[in-house]
Design brief:
This protein is α/β, with parallel strands linked by helices and 260 residues long. The chain has helices spanning 45-52, 92-97, 106-119, 135-147, 165-182, 193-199, 231-257, and strands spanning 6-16, 19-29, 34-38, 60-66, 77-81, 153-157, 185-189, 202-206, 213-218. Helix 3 packs across helix 4, helix 4 (135-147) packs parallel to helix 5 (165-182) and helix 6 (193-199) crosses helix 7. The N and C termini lie far apart (55 Å). The mean pLDDT is 85.
């Protein structure tokens, strides 16, 4: 897999007409690092991710990358959304191969697809149709499709939020393995604090709208050494919740006290 890029966000601000969404965001995701972005609802997390990925131009500020992109990387910045977006008339194998069509020879594409299906535990389901898969399996196909282009930076917008709690917990464990093996710089947006402390090496807390960087936490522990019942991670999860809860409460009071 490709070596990750350094992704640098420098004083990014954005607004939708008169509504300020982001204000002076500066962040750096280091090569191969998982940066998790959290914050109260409406703070601009998804807007920030879209700006990072080049889908949206910021009102001010810049986003840039540093580092070499490997020759086998077909798409440096690649998204995984909560919507699986699988084509129902294509098998698992063909859904993953879709992003390689007209970019690689048939043999080279087939080899990549075989490799990524093995990595994601989907080899035995290569010929299955999306309707035959569980929600967790469909999301795994979405991840395989993202990884098959060997991205330098993976942008993930609440990829587990549409799944039930049990499936989410199982797939979260797989994320740790998959992202670790890929060595890809990852920016992961979530509202789930358990996901944040399980995956994050850098956790960025945004304030209520307009979103600003309120705090940044670093967890200098291997991903494979973390567990759901780790007391230190539980303490951090509670700390994160207190920060976000207070901001959400203030935002709610501002709304109630606003003039009609």
């Amino acid at each position: 897999m490709s070596t990750g890029l350094r992704l640098i966000v420098d004083q990014v601000s954005h607004a939708w007409k008169a509504l300020n969404v982001l204000d002076g965001i500066s962040l750096t995701a280091e090569p191969g690092e998982i940066m998790v972005v959290i914050g109260p609802s409406g703070c601009g997390k998804s807007t920030l991710l879209n700006i990072m990925g080049g889908l949206l131009a910021p009102l001010s500020g810049t986003v840039r990358t540093e580092g070499e992109i490997a020759d086998d990387c077909l798409n440096p910045l690649t998204y995984v959304f909560q919507d699986f977006s699988l084509l129902p008339w294509r098998s698992v194998r063909d859904n993953v191969a879709l992003v390689l069509e007209q970019r690689l020879s048939a043999n080279a594409a087939a080899e990549r697809v075989r490799d990524v299906l093995a990595l994601t535990g989907l080899t035995d389901f290569a010929g299955a149709w999306p309707k035959e898969l569980s929600g967790g399996m469909r999301q795994r196909v979405g991840i395989a499709r993202a990884l098959v282009v060997r991205p330098a930076c993976l942008l993930m917008d609440e990829p587990l939020s549409a799944l039930d709690a049990q499936t989410r917990d199982l797939l979260l464990d797989e994320f740790v393995t998959l992202i670790g093996r890929a060595g890809t710089t990852t920016v992961y947006v979530t509202h789930n604090l358990a996901e944040a402390v399980r995956l994050g090496q850098q956790i960025v807390v945004l304030s209520r709208r307009p979103g600003r960087v309120r705090e940044i936490f670093r967890i200098d522990r291997p991903l494979t050494g973390r567990s759901a019942d780790d007391p230190d991670l539980k303490d951090l999860e509670h700390t994160l919740w207190r920060i976000i809860r207070d901001d959400a409460a203030v935002a709610e009071r501002e709304l109630i006290d606003a003039p009609p």
